[in-house]
Amino acid sequence: MNGLSCGTSNIVGVRFAVYPMADNFVEIIKGALKEVDTSKVWVQTDDITTCVRGRSEHVFDVAKAVFIQAAKTGTHVVFNGTFSVGCPGDSEGDTYMSEDDIRLNEEASRQESVEAATHFALYPMDNPDYMQVIADQVKTAEKHGTFTKGVHYASRLDGTANEIFASLEEMFVDASKTKERAHVTMTATISANSPSTKDN
Amino acid sequence: MNGLSCGTSNIVGVRFAVYPMADNFVEIIKGALKEVDTSKVWVQTDDITTCVRGRSEHVFDVAKAVFIQAAKTGTHVVFNGTFSVGCPGDSEGDTYMSEDDIRLNEEASRQESVEAATHFALYPMDNPDYMQVIADQVKTAEKHGTFTKGVHYASRLDGTANEIFASLEEMFVDASKTKERAHVTMTATISANSPSTKDN
Ligand SMILES: [Ca+2]
């Protein structure tokens, strides 16, 4: 693929970054990464973002853990990422698909109660019913109690980081099952410790 | 639409945030906004992101200007946003579609030479040929000299912020013309003044 590399159909990936709004942002990011076990995922970091790939549960486990470990410092921290599954393309990192399903960071993440606010958007590709797929998945967040409202181009979730990531993961995984070998992406902007008044 | 509000078919929007990695991030953001003329676009800011909607040229003009005005401080600043056109939905902000095409911030933006690095991804919705649409648009960035390489789930651009936004705008607008009333979104993570070594 010219200009766009993806993955095999069942590998899940996220390309993301965590932004601590502080002079010591490098220290906060490095500190967070030191707390996170990434041994069950393929990881590559460059000067713009980090890409994590593997089984769905480990991709979400690692993304959540990095955000929570950075946000627990109390600094205003934002996670921004795009999750992807089913993108036609190469197979680098396939070896991680044979890992078991035990999440390595869940216990540590559960110990932190970080309040967060999120805008997310689901993009089911090549699917004429995509608006219905999105509407159906929003019902999952309503059921979880994390859904706050629709905004232009996105939906808003509020809750703890653990609750928000649980909603995002369930919506993403369920959306990927609406079609054979579905290619689905999901953007998420997750903010903690913002000095702005919550708009919910 | 339950949980997802969009726009009329020809209105363009971007939902974005600019992240200055500094203790005085509020001051940097407010300072940048003070330099940007937003009188030709609909703007709404909450505690997570800012949404700008209107004619394509003004949406890109304002997004670029906010990023450049924040990045010219020399602080490590990242712009993260999703551009959207053709999303079925409401019509709030339609009044801005009657503005002329003179960009209010282009002159000020042109005066700054901010080096930047970008990951972007195009999502042409409900289109079986979407991978070809993406590949075709990447050729535009190659022609501009901004394209660096494909990475998992995205493509990398390098250049000045002015060059990068020109490529993003052309690719986005051209992709939106590949189909009648096309719904296309484009994510972009644009980084300036990063302390990390460029991976290009
Ligand atoms: Ca994004």
Automatic annotation (TrEMBL), chains A, B:
Any GO MF annotation of the entry: thiamine binding
Domain (Thiamin/hydroxymethyl pyrimidine-binding YkoF putative) ranges: 11-90, 116-196
Pfam families: Ykof
Residues that bind thiamine: 18, 50
Protein's name in the database: YKOF-related Family
Originating species: Alkalicoccus daliensis
